[in-house]
Write a structure and sequence with these properties.
single chain, about 250 residues, alpha/beta, 7 helices, about 30% helix, globular
Length: about 250
């Protein structure tokens, strides 16, 4: 039995298709642009604060509407998500991405949620493309100085990106979902405490809002997450790992 009696957070993530009228009262809404029309975007904006479109700077999913445009500019596959790693060094990749972004923002979005930035860090698949993604983000900021950009992960790049984005998202701080067995669970207390201290330092140093995205499948786990993160003062969103709908947690 599903239970929707949860506290509404300030930010909402969904990559599936929803009725825009069912999403209201959020400071930020992050959605997948392929699922919505210009009138839909207007409805989201009327009922919420800023509405951002999802885009990955590191990967392209096989189901993305722009997959065919980028499939020849990839260098490997992320099996967890059925997506392919982009080659930002390849001729034309950045130009294609900007064409896609121009089309998305023309639909009225307030900005973008920039996913997979951690791919370009020391342990990421595209670590040799760090300078390329930094240049792309700088160009994006110059092209759209009045839009909002939220960076997902890539903490080690913040020294170069903090002036280019308006917030940083970090996934699975209180929780630790594992793909090999599809198990939702809490992160160990010691790991969590260390992670939170790091994020508090980042917030103080860069003066950026920190947004936690956590994953749960039951109300019990949801309640445990809330008890952990509520005292941090960070914005947060708690949902299922696929982020395909309005969160519902079984008893």
């Amino acid at each position: 039995m599903a239970n929707n009696n949860v506290v509404q957070s300030d930010i909402f993530f969904c990559y599936g298709k929803l009725n825009p009228l069912d999403v209201k009262g959020y400071s930020y809404v992050v959605i997948e642009s392929k699922n919505y029309t210009i009138p839909d975007v207007k409805k989201f904006k009327k009922l919420n604060g800023k509405v951002l479109a999802y885009i990955s700077l590191g990967e392209v999913n096989s189901q993305a509407k722009h997959y065919n445009s980028l499939k020849n500019n990839t260098i490997g596959k992320n099996e967890n998500w059925d997506s392919y790693y982009l080659d930002l060094k390849a001729s034309g990749t950045s130009q294609i991405l900007f064409t896609i972004i121009d089309q998305i923002l023309a639909d009225g979005y307030d900005g973008l949620f920039l996913d997979n930035i951690d791919n370009f860090c020391s342990f990421g698949f595209q670590k040799d493309q760090k300078e390329e993604v930094l240049q792309f983000m700088a160009d994006l900021d110059a092209r759209y100085p009045n839009h909002t950009f939220i960076q997902n992960a890539g903490l080690e790049l913040l020294e170069k990106t903090f002036r280019l984005v308006d917030a940083i998202v970090v996934e699975s701080v209180a929780t630790d979902f594992t793909f090999d067995d599809n198990v939702y669970k809490l992160r160990s207390q010691a790991e969590y405490d260390k992670y939170i201290r790091q994020l508090q330092q980042i917030r103080r140093k860069y003066k950026l809002p920190v947004i936690l995205v956590e994953y749960a499948d039951t109300r019990a786990l949801y309640d445990q997450i809330i008890r952990r993160i509520d005292r941090t003062g960070f914005l947060y969103f708690i949902g299922s790992i696929d982020l395909q709908g309005i969160p519902k947690f079984s008893e």
